[in-house]
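Quick start: read one record
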Amino acid sequence: MKILVVDDSRAMRAYVRGVLLGSFDCTVVEASSGFEAIRLLPRDLYDIVITDINMPDINGLELIRLVRKSDRHGRVPIVIISTLSSDDDHERALALGATSYLDKPFAPADIVRAIDSALAGPGAPS
């Protein structure tokens, strides 16, 4: 399984990478911005995208829109991890096509459950 982790925080990317590598047989590719993620997506196929919302260039909501328009990645599950935790934030991300939403901080088990659920749900890659 190949996972793209998009977050401008190096510490958060390292934390998520550690959880993923300790929990799944996977390859983790990191992007430090939405713009970098947009450059990486055409280069490979990803089974899941994990992204923050607050980033300096292309934010996570814009990234969701762009991924959902992609013929190649349009059905890839997207898990949001963000400090934005209002019901409106959740609803907006899910309406744009996010598969699930985790509020920061989260426990390792939370992200494992979110990924398991996202990969098992409708539109999961086969």
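The chain is about 45% helix and 20% strand.
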